[in-house]
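Private note to self, pasted from the team thread so I don't lose it. Backbone tokens:
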């Protein structure tokens, strides 16, 4: 799975972002988690989780904004696709 920000740039693994891996929940369901550390207003926006395999692709948008409940030290965005 791949994560992108509002500008369609791939979210890099590093000290601020961490794609915490992808795990298989069932035969057809997968989960990916994006951790955002030291979260600020600059991180607000939509994030896109993209999944693909030989049968096709799917995506999901998740919004992180002022109404989102998160700890400024870190937040996690979770994406489950079928």
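Design output:
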């Amino acid at each position: 799975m791949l994560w992108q920000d509002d500008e369609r740039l791939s979210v890099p693994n590093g000290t601020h972002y961490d794609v915490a891996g992808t795990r298989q929940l069932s035969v057809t369901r997968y989960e990916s988690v994006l951790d955002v550390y030291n979260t600020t207003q600059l991180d607000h926006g939509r994030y896109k989780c993209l999944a693909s395999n030989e049968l096709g692709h799917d995506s999901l948008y998740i919004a992180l904004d002022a109404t989102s409940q998160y700890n400024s030290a870190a937040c996690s965005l979770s994406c489950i696709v079928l």
